[in-house]
C-alpha cells in the first residue's frame, strides 16, 4: 500500500468514524432526554395526591431522579470525550489533506469536518449540564414541599 493510498484510506475511515459517531450520539441524546422527561413526569405524577396537589409518595420520584442524575453526570463526561475525539479526527483529516493533495502555493488544507459539529456537541453538553442543575433543583423543591406538606401543584384530576 502506497503512502497516498494509506492516507486516502485513513481519511475515508476518519470521515466514516465521525459520521457514525455523530449519528449515534444525536440518536442517543434525543432518546435519553425523551426518556428522562417521561420518567420524571410519570413518577412525579405518581407522587402527587390528585385531590390536594401535595406530594404523598416521593420515593419513586427520588429513585428515578437519582438514576437519571448518575446518567447525566456520566453523559456529560462522555460528551466531553466525544468532542475531543471529533476534534482530533478533524485535525488528523486536515493533516492528511495538507500532506497528500496537490495544492497551489500558499493553500492551507482545512479539515472537512465543519466547526458546527463542535458547536453542536458543545451545545448538547450545555443542555446536559442544564438538565443536571434543573432536575436537582426540582428534587430539592419536591423534598422541601413533601416535608412541609404544602401544595406543589393544583389538582391534577
What percent of the residues sit in helical stretches (DSSP H or I)?
over 70%
The whole-number mean of residue pLDDT values reads 87
Question: What is the rounded Rg?
Answer: 24 Å
Beta-strand proportion: under 5%
Number of helices: 3
Order of helices and strands: HHH
Number of strands: 0
**Tally of discrete structural domains:** 1
N→C terminal distance: 71 Å
Which regions are unreliable across 5 or more consecutive residues at pLDDT < 50?
none
Largest sheet: none
Described by the principal axes of the CA atoms, the overall outline is: rod-shaped
Structural class: mainly alpha
3D architecture notes:
The chain is mainly alpha-helical and 157 residues long. It has one domain. Helix content is 77%, strand content 0%. The protein has three helices and no strands. Helix 1 (3-47) runs antiparallel to helix 2 and helix 2 packs antiparallel against helix 3. The radius of gyration is 24 Å and the shape is rod-shaped.
Any descriptors?
157 residues, mainly alpha, 0% strand
Put the structure in a nutshell.
The protein is mainly α and 157 residues long.
Task: Describe how the helices and strands are arranged.
Elements (H helix, E strand, L loop, with lengths): L2 H45 L11 H42 L14 H34 L9
Helix pairs in contact: 1-2, 2-3
Amino acid at each position: 500500500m502506497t503512502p497516498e493510498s494509506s492516507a486516502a484510506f485513513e481519511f475515508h475511515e476518519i470521515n466514516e468514524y465521525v459520521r457514525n459517531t455523530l449519528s449515534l450520539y444525536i440518536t442517543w441524546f434525543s432518546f435519553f432526554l425523551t426518556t428522562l422527561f417521561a420518567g420524571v413526569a410519570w413518577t412525579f405524577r405518581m407522587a402527587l395526591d390528585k385531590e390536594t396537589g401535595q406530594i404523598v409518595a416521593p420515593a419513586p420520584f427520588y429513585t428515578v431522579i437519582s438514576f437519571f442524575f448518575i446518567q447525566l453526570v456520566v453523559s456529560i463526561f462522555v460528551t466531553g470525550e466525544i468532542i475531543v475525539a471529533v476534534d482530533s479526527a478533524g485535525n488528523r483529516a486536515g493533516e492528511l489533506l495538507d500532506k497528500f493533495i496537490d495544492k497551489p502555493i500558499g493553500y492551507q488544507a482545512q479539515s472537512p469536518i465543519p466547526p458546527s459539529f463542535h458547536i453542536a456537541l458543545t451545545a448538547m453538553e450545555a443542555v446536559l449540564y442544564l438538565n443536571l442543575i434543573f432536575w436537582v433543583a426540582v428534587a430539592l423543591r419536591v423534598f422541601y414541599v413533601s416535608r412541609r406538606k404544602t401544595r406543589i401543584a393544583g389538582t391534577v384530576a
